[in-house]
Write a structure and sequence with these properties.
This protein is about 55% helix and about 5% strand. It is mainly α. Bound molecules: zinc ion.
Amino acid sequence: MQLHTPFRRSLLKATIALAICGAPLAYAQDAAVQPGDDFFGYANADWLKSAQIPADRSRWGIAGELGELNNQRLLKLIEEAGRNATGEAKMVADFYNTAFDEAAIEAKGLAPLQQVLAPIAAIKDKAQLTRALGSSLRADVDPLNATNFFTENLFGLWIAQGLTDPTHNTPYLLQGGLGMPDRAYYLDDKPSMQTLREKYQAHIAATFKLAGMDDAAARAARVFALETKIAKSHATREDSADIQKANNNWKAADFAAKAPGMDWKLFLQSAGLGQQQKFIAYHPTAIIGAAALVGSEPLETWKDFLAFHTINHLSGAEPKALADQHFDFYDRTLSGTPQQMLRWKRSLAAVNDAMPDALGKMYVERYFPAESKKKLQQMVSNIVAAFHTRIDQLDWMAPATKKEAHAKLKVLYVGVGYPDKWTSYKGLQVVPGDAIGNQLRAEKFHTVQQLAKLKQPVDNTEWCMPAQLVNAVNMPMQNAINFPAAILQAPYFDPAAGDAANYGAIGATIGHEISHSFDDQGAQFDSKGRLRDWWTKADSEHFQKASAVLVAQYSAYKPFPDLAINGQQTLSENLADLAGLAAAFDAYKTALKDKPAMADADRQFFTAYATSWRGIQREAALRRAVLTDGHSPAKWRTYTVRNLDAWYKAFDVQPGQALYLAPQERVRVW
Ligand SMILES: [Zn+2]
């Protein structure tokens, strides 16, 4: 579970732009907004007065500001590497320069794309189709850590330890094949969704036309109709988050029997999984549905499907007209972003996708001081200690459950700043002047590296997030947490700021990630990372009852009159916010114990928390997030404070105020 979801696969694509590094944590108070009525508006009043979403963004906030600062830094590092580097740094520079050279891409026109499309056009029968579908499988999703369920390929692949077999890496097969973000976009009756469907079909047609293919409208109609059929077999976003529904152990031979319609042996062979015996069918209904459609739908329709998604997926490396078309639908229409991101930022995002660790290594050497790492490791151990104490103090939990909870905390791997072992890109071919080829080879290289893990021991110190990303993540099966260097800077963490501010901001984030080990999802895994019920019946009932209250609390929030937050879909994150904030508060109290007390320290703590979530979004982006994101939107995340008694005391919040909850209504889980 990551701290927040970048809108696109690439982080830096979604989180860019500058400001305020080094600025103190502001906590302006606006007399017009009472903390008890709108804590978000109160704490961020000054920022909200002047905040504007840049034209190339669908949302804006701290992550965006720091992302922009990081982009400037990364660009500088790449430019230096282009002048004098060798090895991986030189590969990074070559990749970037090739992606950035719009004139060279324009001059080549459609020729590089046509080379990629030719094998699709040459497909003669369903066997060749199956081979093409299999060989397009990429390790491009991650249902548990990054909660990324999206792939345009027919299926997504994730390699991780087995849900009930923590000692072996296992391939997980997930649903895919849609060009819009979720099944709801295809099946929901709302007029706004119907409009999006029309615009999507028009986008498919425009893409075919710009790629020089004939009969664009008819092809688009076929692709759209096929995707609608695929969407019907897809799990909902809410079901995707239910790990019990995903725990389907299939043997290689089961696919043919359980999901007829496609030659699975051929598919798996083509995907590099021919030798693999055990799988997890994460989305069984979609696997069954897609295989049946491979059997029943005409070959030409599937060829159009493959061609469209190939062009669509590679748009960043294609001539301007295709890249603009892609922006027009995905960013302008789906997220409300008025202006395309500058070329250099898009190119940087492409390098971040292709060689994240090579760039991360360069970033950390220059921008992550050893002193920060030391301080943060101390904060982490204080917050872990606070968790141990909170577990001890739970009056409802049985000793056996407590014992396993303590054991989980003891084995937790907390990575601060960067991985112990960097990914190597030895063997990856970066060819100057071949933008499409570079992207395809990098994606294949990553997939081959992931497939190789099937023959390697499970390593819980493996990172799943690059050091240069402003984010953080808990990996429930690995019992591991990553805090990338890029988030460990002001205003999240300011070495010059006081404990109250640092614990309220980065401390709550650290607590959030640790808490994921004990949210509704994480609590299903034991200290070995095995999906196993280690709770007594009574404990489990208490936990579920408390969770249900939190579901109701969030489901009552309405970002729009016609659209409420889905308290079930966001439960894991809301639980982590709640437990994380509470643990950070305890740890901050411990850190202050021997220091002179400051009168308004508690107010600083909570205000720093709300400040760390300051952010605004465009309407389309906010609607999309409410429908598909596992996180509540930032504003409502700050309302977590309603459940902590100390917040009422700090701000003198009284009955009758909008955020007031009677003591018995405040949710306490951990
Ligand atoms: Zn989270």
